[in-house]
Design goal:
Length: about 400
């Protein structure tokens, strides 16, 4: 019986959740892509093919691949789940009571395959065949979205993250992504793979407004041995880190959280865009950001409901102590200054470790991949000409739900 447990970043990966980019990308245009958090418009079919190669690369490494769309369809087949999701995603506060009711009725009549496609991929007013007495539809243009597409669902890493014996259902910083979390809440609650399984929900599973406590999984590295490394980025706040840490400690699942204060800008949107764990004692880092000037904090439990927070001299010694290794190896982004900056932007540091010393990364990052190779790290390279335009690499596009400890 396989177990919902992620014990590290580098132990053998067993099961992972991906989302193949489909309908949501067809709704990306030059005029809306920025507010949907994409820097560019992707070629949809090519992105899908690249994603299939990524999924197949994982399967070739004996990793079971679950696809979000399929899980959502199977979850919607459960009546309570469907009702809960429609009430939450098509809420009276979002649409006003009249239009919300009409829209829910219309969607409830759809088959689950189509409904999942629309919840993930969006719906324009021009595609809505119903009339409603509400003011709202009359005040919108046909090309406006009734349901905004969720192209960032491609990055399954962020919406929820498994840490040791549980999961954090992350309250997302940006409005364009907040609806994603409800899909995962429904899947983890009702889908047969998860329902009735023994795991902890650390954070984010209540119908609350989490205010300033936001977290995204790209900032969370489960480095193993009871430690968790978290970046405080553009999208993850100290309030989010402390709330998650409190629940990790009270459940006894972690004994230390190391928090790094990252610059708050888009090129290092999440910690894993500038730093990933690729072997037991080895990290890939972008030295422009990850260097000795980085403010580093250690959070450890104190008694039942308290924690000790102290500033550490530097991140390297904090990690060496947590991982119980003598000396950390750091592989920096490859090439001269220009090449390193370009490759970091193209996710050279955002690799997914499949087992110690074996990673999946984009083939376009030639200089960094060469450095990995020289350091004895095997790179399974995948094409990312289209996928990479979403600003996320193999780690961003994967949510491990079962992985061995180190």
């Amino acid at each position: 019986m396989s177990k919902l447990y992620v014990g590290s970043e580098v132990g053998q990966l067993r099961r992972v959740l991906l989302n193949r980019p489909e309908r949501a990308l067809t709704h990306l245009t030059p005029s809306n892509c920025q507010e949907l958090l994409f820097d560019d418009v992707l070629a949809v079919e090519a992105a899908g093919k690249e994603h299939d190669i990524f999924a197949q690369t994982l399967r070739n490494q004996d990793v079971e691949v679950l696809l979000l769309h399929d899980l959502l369809v199977e979850t919607l087949a459960i009546e309570d789940a469907k009702e809960w999701l429609l009430l939450n995603q098509i809420s009276d506060f979002r649409y006003g009571p009249t239009f919300a009711k009409d829209l829910r009725n219309y969607l409830a009549g759809m088959d689950n395959e189509n409904l999942a496609t629309i919840l993930l991929g969006g719906l324009a007013y021009s595609e809505l065949p119903i009339q409603s007495s509400s003011m709202l539809p009359k005040m919108h243009r046909p090309i406006d979205f009734v349901i905004e597409p969720l192209p960032n669902h491609l990055f399954t890493r962020d919406t929820s993250c498994w840490i040791y014996g549980g999961v954090s259902l992350n309250p997302m910083m940006k409005a364009a992504r907040q609806r994603e979390t409800n899909h995962l809440r429904a899947i983890y609650r009702w889908h047969p793979t998860f329902a009735g399984s023994d795991f902890i929900k650390y954070f984010g599973d209540q119908d609350l407004h989490y205010d300033n406590a936001t977290i995204e999984g790209g900032d969370v590295l489960v480095i193993g041995k009871g430690a968790v490394l978290i970046g405080m980025s553009e999208r993850t706040t100290p309030q989010g880190v402390e709330n998650l840490a409190a629940n990790l400690f009270s459940s006894g699942q972690a004994n230390q959280v190391i928090a790094l204060n990252l610059p708050k800008h888009r090129s290092c949107m999440h910690l894993d865009t500038v730093m990933t764990h690729i072997d037991i004692d080895t990290f890939s880092v972008y030295p422009e950001i990850i260097n000795k000037n980085l403010e580093t904090w250690s959070l450890t439990p104190k008694g039942q409901n308290d924690m000790i927070v102290k500033q550490m001299p530097d991140y390297v010694s904090a990690l060496e102590t947590a991982l119980k290794v003598d000396k950390l190896k750091l592989i920096t982004t490859g090439g001269d200054n220009y090449e390193a900056e370009r490759e970091q932007w193209n996710d050279a540091n955002n690799v997914l470790t499949v087992k110690p010393g074996v990673v999946i990364g984009y083939e376009r990052n030639v200089y960094t991949n060469e450095k990995y190779d020289k350091a004895g790290i095997e790179v399974l390279s995948i094409p990312g000409n289209e996928l990479g335009r979403g600003r996320g690499g193999a780690r961003c596009m994967s949510c491990p739900i079962e992985r061995d400890s180190i």
